[in-house]
Amino acid sequence: MAKSTPNRSRTTSPATPPPTVPAVDPIPTAHRWTFLTNHAHVLIVLHGQPDLVLREVAVRVGITERAVQRIVQELEEEGFLRREKVGRQNHYHVITDQPLRHPIEAHRDIGDLLELITKAGSGGPL
């Protein structure tokens, strides 16, 4: 004979909403956009620390490691960055005499941008 179970109502309390996980936002809420692109940010970080692993570059820039890999590949293809294998690690060299790409800034090169951003005493987190 089958065992009978009491009829229990399974309802959730409307006063308790389901738990939510807050989104991770690498850019503070007050700063949803920046003047420089992620490509520039990656170049700046690698210029300051050419032996940094891409995972750490991603953390510093606030994008995914995969996005950093894509950006590094694009920068290499366009001649802005050179990768050198040193043992099992990569060493990155920024080609500073490459002109900036937009016509408005094409009279300047990557070195000018890096000098402006990384001036001694700027306190920047490189």
Folded structure, characterized:
The protein is an alpha+beta fold and 126 residues long. It has a domain at 38-117: Orthogonal Bundle (Arc Repressor Mutant, subunit A), CATH 1.10.10. 32% of the residues lie in helices and 10% in strands. The protein is built from four helices and two strands; from the N terminus they run αααββα. Strands 1-2 form a two-stranded antiparallel sheet. Strand 1 and strand 2 form a beta hairpin. The longest helix has 13 residues, at 65-77. The chain is globular, with a radius of gyration of 24 Å.
Keywords:
2 strands; two-stranded antiparallel ribbon; alpha+beta
CATH fold topology of the domain at 38-117: Arc Repressor Mutant, subunit A
Q: How many β strands by DSSP?
A: 2
Pattern of helices and strands: HHHEEH
The class by helix and strand makeup works out as alpha+beta
| CATH C-level class of the domain at 38-117 | Mainly Alpha
- Strand ordering within the main sheet: 1-2
What is the straight-line distance between the termini? 74 Å
Which stretches of 5+ consecutive residues score pLDDT under 50?
9-13, 16-24
Oligomer: single chain
The CATH superfamily of the domain at 38-117 turns out to be: Winged helix-like DNA-binding domain superfamily/Winged helix DNA-binding domain
- In the CATH hierarchy, the architecture of the domain at 38-117 is Orthogonal Bundle
Helix content: 25-40%
Biased composition (Low complexity): 1-14
Pfam families: MarR_2
InterPro entries: HTH_MarR-typ, WH-like_DNA-bd_sf, WH_DNA-bd_sf
Protein name: HTH marR-type domain-containing protein
